[in-house]
Amino acid sequence: MLTALQAQLELGDLEDIIHDYRPIASHCLPARMVPTLPCEGVQMHHQSLRGMTPSEAKQAFLNLIQSWPLHKATIFDVMVCLISNNLLALQGINEFTFWGKVCEIFPQFIEKI
């Protein structure tokens, strides 16, 4: 749906069949997702957006992103290693704000004081 909204923003209403949405998808999706993009599904969503103005498409794009649970989250590349039943080692964390989320996700590993 993000790619369809981006296509509506960049191209406007779908007039001709677009066989390859990958160039548009590269503007709004991570590079690893672009090669596996289901173009037929994007085309169907893009067609359903007919009549949507660029400003409406941009607002819908932002609303969709803001509805995601990880909106405004900072993602860290972290390696998690279980050393023993009671000890969890995390490498690569340099932000204290992330620790609270780790405590929520892995409460069984956090020792109660």
UniProtKB/TrEMBL annotation:
Source species, domain of life: Eukaryota
Residue ranges of every copy of the FERM domain listed in the record: 1-113
Bilayer-spanning residue ranges: none
Listed InterPro entries: FERM/acyl-CoA-bd_prot_sf (IPR014352), FERM_2 (IPR035963), FERM_central (IPR019748), FERM_domain (IPR000299)
A Pfam family per the record: FERM_M
Coiled coil residues, start to end: none
Name by which UniProt lists this protein: FERM domain-containing protein
Upper taxonomic lineage: Eukaryota, Metazoa, Ecdysozoa, Arthropoda, Hexapoda
